[in-house]
Structure formats: C-alpha cells, structure tokens
Amino acid sequence: MIAFRATRLLLASSIATACLAAPLLMAQQSGTSIAPSQSVISPTSIQLADSGRANKPTAGENYVDLQDCAVHLIDDIDVPAREAGLLRGVNVVEGQVVKQGELLAQIDDQLAQRQLEEAQLKQNIATEKAEDNTDVEAADKKQKLLAIMYERKAKLLRDSSASQEDVETARFQKETSFFEFLKAQRDKKLAAEEAKAEGVKVNAANDSIARHQLTCPIDGHVFQVFKEPGEWVAAGDTVLRVARMNKLKATGLVDATLYSAQQIANRNVVITIQLAREQTTQLPGKIVYIDYERKEGGKKFQVWAEIENQQVDGQWVLNPDDYVSMRILLN
After folding, report:
1. Could you write out the DSSP letters of every residue in 174-218?
2. What is the CA radius of gyration of the chain?
3. pLDDT tens for residues 88-127?
4. How far apart are alpha carbons 331 and 324 in whole angstroms?
5. Pairing of strands 63-73, 323-329
6. pLDDT exceeds 50 at position 76
7. Are 283 and 316 in contact (CB under 8 A)?
8. 167, 146, 139, 168: which is closest to 155 by C-alpha?
9. Dihedral (Cα; 306, 310, 315, 321), 10-degree rounding
10. From CA 290, how far away is CA 305, in angstroms rounded?
C-alpha cells in the first residue's frame, strides 16, 4: 500500500513538472526566453479580460445606445382665464384635436360688448364731424364777404358817404368773421382727435372682448378640462390644459468617460418603442440639448432628443411617460 501511494505521488509530480516545463521547452525551440517571474495566464483570466473590453467603445463604432430613456411633452400649456366672469361655454372635450387660434371657451362679455358699441357710436359721430367741411367753408366765405364790405365802407368814408361808426362796425364784423373761420378749423381738428380717442376706446373694448375668449395657443390635444360652463372663474384660473403631441422629447444619460458632449451634440437619433405583443417600431429624432451639469458623480451627462411623433390608425405611436431606447448616430 505504501509503495502504491509513493508511485501515485511520483506520477503526479512528473505530470506537473512536464506541464510547467512545456512552455519553457516551446520557448527554447522558438528562440525566445521566459523570465522566471512570468506566470502562465489561465483561460479563466482571458475570458474576464475579454468581457471587460466588450463594454468599451471599439474603433469603428458609429452609434451610442441608451436604454430606459424617458419621454416627455415639450409644449404643455395651461390655458388660463384672463378676465373674471361667468364661464358661458366650453367648446371642446378632453382628447379633442385643436388648432392654434381655435376658440376653446367663452367667458361672459356682455359689458365689454356694450362698451364696444358705445365707443363705436362716439367714434362715428366724431369722424363725421372731422370729415364735414361745411362750417369751415361757411366761415371762410363769411369772412371774405365781410372783408369786401369793410373795404367798401372805408372807401365811402373817404368820399364822405359813410360815417366813421359804419366803418368801425364793418371792421369789427370782418375781424370777428376771421376768428369764426379759425374756430371752425380748430373744431374740425378737435373732432379728428376725438375720433382717434374714441378709436382707442374701440380697441380697448375689442381687447376686452378678446380677453374673455380662451383661444388655443398651439396645435395640439386637449388633455384636461378643469372648469364647466356656468362656473365662475377668476383671472388666472386654469380652465384647460393643451399639449402638443406631434413633437415629444426623450431624455437619456450618456457615459461621460466614453463620449464627449461634442460627439453627441446635434446628432440624429433613432428611437425604438416597445409595442404590445413584443413588437417594436422606430421613430427619427435629433439631439437638440445637452445638460452640462454632470449626473451620477460626474460620470454621465443628460441629452435631450426631439422626436417626430407619428399616428397609426388615429393614435400616436409615442406617448408621454413612455420609456424607449435611443440610438445616437455619431456619423
């Protein structure tokens, strides 16, 4: 039994010596040498080294893949009441597609309408006076006639056919008629200014009427309706919420140790969206903003891509709060 164990130990030692000597023998045959301190790399360590290199960018890469990118609205607007009053009507419902400038809701504007009517009437009267030349022409003819009569009286005075009193009276009438002519001209100018002042009131009344109307600020969808017809609203109260769906943004984090902001800025992207039943679809976009405040201890920076959304069967493919993958095309 002792002899058998000794034989096994001797055999194992011989095999180990052969394994260690084999690299030396191969090196001697190839004309190279191995330092005594150099160790042989195991297959396990090679696999670990290869897996470490696989996470780093390699020469020739032309894209960056980001996962779990959050989707957000770009234009998300609360539409407020600009004037206090009774909400007379809401013309839209939640989910409805609306266009910029479309009337969404109406606040009671009866007072503003009456103010507009009054201002328009006064403006029309003032404008008519400003355009009427009757008084000016009559005063002009009168002062010319009295000037001629004065000259005649003055000539008769020289011929002793008229008294000094007649001449003074004629001169007074001539001078008075001249001032009447100036007053007629001034009244015409004042009427023109009055028409302008009433025009300002007309504009103010129209502005007031417009402020009682809630119009859509963008092309988009009605996301929420907060007030119902018949409710009283104060100036500043949010009545509706409208958002744009044809353009959304996706945000993701880029590894700052691998890529610089200059490499990422203004690059085109492709967004991959996970659909139902394990199907996917893609949408184009572009990097439009880089947040230079580093995240996660300075190792990452956030990018913002603007995405061109699309509809399929009347429904948007991309929606707010979705999570998508983003491929940034570097070339």
Report:
1. HHHHHHHHHHHHHHHHHHHHHHHHHHHHHHHHHHHHHHTEEE-SS
2. 47
3. 999 999 999 999 999 999 999 999 999 999 999 999 999 9
4. 22
5. antiparallel
6. yes
7. no
8. 167
9. -20
10. 9
